[in-house]
Design goal:
alpha+beta, three-stranded antiparallel beta sheet, about 40% helix, elongated
């Protein structure tokens, strides 16, 4: 499992809150801001897990501007 940080934008559409990660182009929604953010975290995790299974994770991460961290051997 990889850990990444990502920005999110939360906005309201009617009674629903939408959380969107522009860098990854992934979104989710919920009835509250917190629910939308938590659902976005789940959506991003599932998106990355599926990309890893499909063998496209490195390409997606590179296209999104993420760099592979070098292992810390200290």
């Amino acid at each position: 499992m990889i850990k990444i940080e990502f920005d999110s934008i939360v906005f309201q559409e009617g009674k629903t809150y939408v959380a969107y990660s522009p860098k990854l182009d992934v979104s989710s929604c919920g009835g509250t801001v917190d629910e939308a953010r938590n659902n976005l975290k789940t959506a991003v995790r599932l998106f990355l897990e599926e990309a890893e299974k499909m063998g496209t994770l490195e390409d997606i991460m590179s296209e999104s501007g993420y760099e592979k961290a070098e292992p810390n051997l200290n």
